[in-house]
Amino acid sequence: MLRDVLLQADESPHNGRADTLNCRGLGTCGTCAVSVSGEVEEPGPRERLRLATPPHVSDSGLRLACQLRVEDDLVVEKYPGFWGQHTGRTEVREEDTREL
């Protein structure tokens, strides 16, 4: 999974306190949402459900790093917000950008 690849590279798939407050790869918290460029499989039911639940929006194009199988090279981009949800389509609040 992309989450495992990122952690092995000493990169966190999470933002801020989500490093310690997350579901540890179960696909239920949504704090590892990232944007990916490259060939990837379609999201499964659990991922679709979580990304359709606020603060995420289903048409954001984000994926959950813990649910995304890596089969080839990808470009990964993280966005601000505890859940990484601020892709430019949503308002960024001050509390989402400061380090906790």
Major beta-sheet overview: 3 strands, antiparallel
Class based on secondary structure composition and strand pairing: alpha+beta
Count of discrete alpha- or pi-helical segments spanning 4 or more residues:
3
Question: What CATH architecture would you give?
Answer: Roll
CATH class (first level) name? Alpha Beta
Give an overview in words.
A three-stranded antiparallel beta sheet has the order 2-1-3, with no helix packed on it. It has 100 residues and is α+β, with helices and mostly antiparallel strands. It has one domain: Ubiquitin-like (UB roll) (Roll). Mean pLDDT is 88; it is low at 96-100. It is built from three helices and three strands. The termini are far apart.
Task: Identify the notable features of this structure and list them briefly.
single chain, about 100 residues, Ubiquitin-like (UB roll), three-stranded antiparallel sheet, 3 strands, about 20% helix, about 10% strand, globular, disordered C terminus
